[in-house]
Every structure is written in C-alpha cells, then in structure tokens.
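Ticket #4471: structure output looks truncated?

Reporter: J.K.
Steps to reproduce: submitted the chain below (308 residues) through the standard prediction queue, then opened the result file.
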Amino acid sequence: MHAMRPLKREETPRARRSARGPWRHAIQIAFFILVANLCVHAHQPLDLVSIQYIPPTLVVEARVNGSKPLLFAFDTGTTTCLIDAQVARRLGIQPVSRPGREGPGFARARTLAVGRATARDLELVIRDLSPFSKQLGLELAGIIGFTWMEQFVFEIDYRENRLALWPRTAELIPRADQLPLPLELHSAPGFTGASLYVPVTLDGRRCLAEIDTGAETGVLGRRMGARLGATLKPIDRPQGLPTHTVSRVELAGRVFANVPFKLDPRLGSDMRPYGQCVIGNELLKAFVVTFDIPRRRVFFQSVLPQPD
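Returned output as attached by the reporter:
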C-alpha cells in the first residue's frame, strides 16, 4: 500500500512573484554592498607603513635609488629633503655643482620611496646629520620634507604607528569624525619648498601655526610671545630656549590647557614673517592627521579624550 503524497498547491503568477521577492531583495543588497566596496577601494592607499614617534621627530623607513630600507625623519617642518653625507657616499650619490648657490652640497635622487609611494628625480641636500642621529640614538640616513610630501596625500596615526599614503590625485572625502581645516603654504625667500600652516587660537588670539612633525613641543616667535605677555630673554645656549605656558590652545575643535611653548626670538623674522607659532608632535598626537597638500587642506580626527 502506497502512502498518499499531499496535494501540490497550484502556483499562481502572484505566488511566483512572491517567491522571487526575497531573492530580488537579497540581490539588491549584495549589489549595493559591492558598489560601496568599490567606492572605498577607489581610495585605498598606495601603502600602509610603520612610522614611529621618537622625540622630537617622526621616523620612517625609506629607500633611495632602490637601496635597502634606511631610517629617515618624516618632518613637515623641513621644506626640502636631506641625506646624510656619509650615507650619500656609501650609496654612490655624488654632489652636483649649482652655479650661484653656496652652502651645503646638492644631489639628485632617481627615486625616494616610502613603501610603494615613490617620488622621482628629487633634489637632496647633503648634510652631516650625525648630531641628529646621536640625539635620536639611531643612524638617521636623511630627512623627508615638503618636496617629497607634496607629491602625495598622507595620514599620520600616532596611536597605531601607521602612515597611510595615497597618490596626490586621490580626492578624499572627510568622514563625519574628521574636521577639515584650510592649509596655507608659505615659502621663505631663497628656500626650496614650503611650510604648512593651519589656524589656531592661543589664549583667545588667533594666528597661523606651522605644523612641524620634526618638533616635540610648540614654539612661539618674538611677536606672538609679546602678544601673549611672555618675557623674552636672550638665548642661553647651555640652558636652551626659555618656555612660556599658554593657558588655552584651541586646535581643530579641541581645547588644550596649560600647554608649554618654547620662546625663540629668532622665529618670525623678516625672512619668515609667518613663523610666529609652531605646533609640534605633543599636540598633534591627540589626532589622526590627514594632509592633503594638493588641495590645501588638513583633516583632524580627535583620538584622545577631551580633558575636563
């Protein structure tokens, strides 16, 4: 005796459309996810590399003319790129004559690469960097400055010790947790490259501050120090630069209290009229900072709790 099978309900066109509905919805969701991923990948960095904050500067590995990785300072306060004289000799980099220019030697690098971010045919200033190496406790091969940085978009994450690098054509859109600030570039007469400036407020007084990842603490020039009521004294070489505490610093939507700044009366001379204030790593490390030099903007993402 055979068991009776249940009768199969007749499928109507409406039932077939209803059965296809969940599948269509799932396909639409998958499509939107794919499109979103493609949009994100369109701005994926060229590379993510390690970067270390070794006071007073940031340090990263770089390769010159395809060399093995060497340690370079990553310094937004340096307008050009430098290479140590001994390292240049080891790599066979010869100085070139520059008619009408005196001072340090100059050379050209075929390539200067940080990860997969490679700048080509770049001028290098040849200097003895051994005093800086001694200060850091490591052999510093050179300094990466503005003339390399302007060819890329890059992001410094102090907490993760990470440097993200994009091509200069990448037009990043700031996220909701990033505050974009206008970036100004100013060059000193007779110098290659430029320095980077953003607006800050010091004890209620607005000014343009140079962003300097080669400096540990901030610096005030003569005029800004006078505006803040600082006592300017002659520089005592053995003791170093005097300090002045700024009660309230406002930078990128954050407020910092009782911030010490060094006083340098040489800063902001007639040669560099914009250099009245410098912001160093001790303030910058409260953020993830994205530098978009080609479009003259900087994104600040606050990562440390706002102090009470």
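Triage note (M.O.): checked the attachment and the full token line is present. DSSP finds six helices and 19 strands in the chain.
Status: closed, working as intended.
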